[in-house]
Design brief:
The protein has helices at about 45-65, 105-115, 175-180, 180-190, 215-220, 230-235, 240-245; strands at about 1-5, 25, 25-35, 85-90, 125-130, 140, 150-155, 205, 225-230, 245-250, 255-265, 270-280, 285-295, 305-310, 315-320, 325-335, 340, 355-360, 365. About 45% of the residues are buried. The strands form five sheets. Strands 13, 14, 16, 17, 18 and 19 form a six-stranded antiparallel beta sheet that branches. Strands 4-3-5-7-6 form a five-stranded mixed beta sheet. The chain is of the alpha+beta class and about 375 residues long.
């Protein structure tokens, strides 16, 4: 059986001839914004250093745990003494104006920072913090090789006392008051990550890309403070600029063909087994799937599954924490240049291969 995963052909906006791709230095740019009548807290540089160190420790620990050797994690702009560069930007309007109270301010803030500090746009990921406004929500957006940079976050800065150390639980103590889980969650979206919930088998608390701490505690455990990175997320981010410090200005999209594809439901084990062989013009290291049931607890609880590919492209992926519902399994392959796709038409799960399944009379069937 041959599955072309929707398309074997692709259109690349800026194609490169194989062998001409050159990696350049990628950077995370920290921008701290305040209205014109608000001064940033004095401890911002110190706190930002704690946040960056915590983030590197967190990502490094879990990526190593799942067999994805850490690279240049969070390649933040640094001063000569090694501390993070914080680009302070002040708006032209006051707090009372309400000009900075809604989503949408991130674009003008980014452009102001670029102009004020002459920051290179290419290869930059924008970690934007806002203080002194009534902004109540955060956002993260992926944009690998986008002309405006490799994605952005828009985050509300919480000025709280206490020292943040890497041994503090991500959803506990000072980290919880800061909403550090939220800071790293939204940063995950700069790498085009979808929401991926915790796996029952891991018993490691909340997942970084799953529900926030408040929601998780209402649903599972009122006292939970632990947060972990799932293996699926580790696979998706391993080769991305925010985890390697390198980027391709015009990354190639892969040609994707899967031969001998076989989706099977094993009734005794209550699991799907997806197997086949990837044929591509780019080297891939992992296969990742997200199970999206029609009926379930919601967007933030979707289960993610991953496995490494064999050198010849063969793969087998087990999907086993199933809910009593029909649904779809979305599949992507993770490539060495940081791209992940299931069709070759674009980056992310919007371009995943879709394997539908049905749940009828307490039994599953999968595939066409």
């Amino acid at each position: 059986m041959v599955i072309r995963f929707l398309s074997v052909l692709l259109v690349v906006t800026l194609p490169l001839v194989p062998g001409t791709v050159r990696a350049a230095e990628a950077k995370v740019r920290i921008v701290f914004f305040t209205p014109k009548d608000v001064e940033p807290p004095a401890n911002v540089p110190q706190r930002m250093q704690e946040i960056v160190e915590y983030g590197r420790t967190f990502y490094g620990k879990w990526m190593q745990r799942w067999g994805y050797e850490p690279g240049n994690l969070l390649p933040v702009d640094q001063n000569k003494d090694g501390t993070p560069v914080v680009y302070f930007v002040k708006g032209a309007e006051t707090v009372a104006s309400g000009a900075y109270d809604k989503i949408g301010i991130q674009g003008p803030i980014r452009e102001q920072a670029i102009a004020q500090y002459k920051i290179p746009r290419a290869g930059s990921t924008w970690w934007i913090f806002v203080y002194g406004t009534k902004l109540g929500v955060s956002r993260g957006y992926g944009g690998y090789a986008d002309k405006k940079g490799n994605g952005y976050t828009l985050l509300v800065w919480n000025d709280v006392p206490g020292k943040l150390t890497p041994d503090v639980p991500l959803a506990g103590g000072v980290a919880d008051k800061l909403n550090l889980k939220g800071y790293l969650h939204e940063f995950g979206h700069t790498m085009s990550l979808p929401h991926i919930g915790p796996m029952n088998r891991h018993r490691s608390g909340m997942s970084l890309m799953g529900p926030n701490a408040r929601t998780y505690r209402r649903a599972r455990s009122r006292t939970e403070q632990k947060v972990y990175l799932t293996p699926a997320v580790a696979a998706l981010i391993w080769k991305q600029p925010q985890m390697t410090g390198q980027f391709e200005a015009r990354p190639r999209l892969p040609k994707i063909e899967v031969t001998d594809f076989k989706p099977v439901y094993e009734a005794k084990a209550k699991r799907f087994v997806l197997s086949g062989k990837l044929k591509s013009d780019l080297k891939a290291h992992s296969v990742v799937a997200i199970d999206i049931p029609e009926k379930g607890p919601g967007e933030y609880w979707k289960k993610g599954y991953s496995n490494r590919l064999e050198p010849n492209g063969e793969f087998e992926l087990v999907v086993d924490e199933l809910l009593p519902s029909s649904g779809v399994v979305k599949v992507v392959f993770c490539f060495e240049n940081g791209v992940f796709s299931g069709t070759g038409k674009g980056i992310g799960f919007r371009h995943a291969a879709e394997i539908p399944y049905k749940f009828v009379r307490n039994r599953y069937t999968i595939g066409n």
